[in-house]
Amino acid sequence: MSLCLGGDGALRVLLVGGALGVVLALGAARLLESIVFGISPYDPATFGTVASVLLVVVLLAVYLPARRAMKVAPLMALRYE
18 with 51: CB under 8 angstroms? Predict the structure, then answer.
């Protein structure tokens, strides 16, 4: 099963969005550095956890509809169109 469903591909969207999100999160952490007490705003465990959770969500969002589509017989799908 490929993660490239549709034209853009879910994995490519995840990587681009993730990279942009990390850059924006680091910028926001820099702005919030004076407000946060007791922890580092650049905590790698937090960034890693969030990235892992988002990866699992994207993989489930791609896998579940693809699994359902694999159950449809190809001839039935072609007749429908």
Answer: yes
Does position 79 have pLDDT exceeding 70, yes or no? yes
> 32-62: string of b/e by CB count within 10 Å (b at 16+)?
eeeeeeeeebeeeeeeeeeeeeeeeebeeeb
* Residues comprising the chain, all counted: 81
Which of 18, 1, 27, 7 minimizes the C-alpha distance to 57?
A: 18
Each domain of the chain, given as residue ranges in start order, spans: 10-80
What's the predicted TM-score (pTM) here? Answer: 0.62
